[in-house]
Amino acid sequence: MLKLVLLPGMDGTGKLFSEFVALLPSSCEAVIVRYPTQEPLLYQDLEGIVRAACPVTEPFLIVAESFSTPLGIKFAAKQPANLVGIVLCAGFAASPVRGWRRLVGLLLAPLLLRVPLPNFAAKFWLVGPNAPASLLMAVRSAISSVRPRVLAARLRAVLECDVLAELSQIDIPILYIQANGDRLVGALCLEAIQRINPKLKVASIDGPHLVLQRQPRIASEAVVEFAQSCCPFEMS
Description:
By secondary structure, the protein is an alpha/beta fold. It has helices spanning 18-22, 43-53, 69-77, 99-112, 119-127, 133-144, 148-160, 164-167, 187-196, 211-214, 216-230; strands at 2-7, 28-32, 60-65, 83-89, 174-179, 201-205.
């Protein structure tokens, strides 16, 4: 059995992985990492939580979504035992926002994240205009369960991150899942990663930023196919 260690997006709750996990074959065991909702930990603090969740003697893959992709890169760069591959989903190795927009984000993050996420913003940035009402509700619920100061700290971490040097130290296979309709993380983020690691595989999937949630079947198939290439296992 191969273990998939799932690192969540900015909400950090792991609740939004449920449909993706349900579509994995029984030969893959999903381990969902959850981040504290009340404490604004930085990437280096969260790395200890990831390490504690990873198996010690069994092969495993990291599947890092959005906010967690720099964390997954930092962790993989230390070459932990039995890590056979890493999946970066709608992710980045350096701030996805540059220039004046980045400065505005740093200044306004504490204010913007104090109000509940409006439906129109969730549809535009995260789930797409035709998202099911159940997914929209789940996303808003997951985000609202996290204290605003924690979300603000995570947004600042995203805007200030740069793990390109760590990316160059990874010698295991990498799969990048690109959401073709992503309005948060653009194609330039993938290009920056490809310049450092031109051998990485890319799976382009039609969907918004939360592509694992909008296209769970296609995404799970891409991850399982990649997992098989990293560490062949019997499908069941």
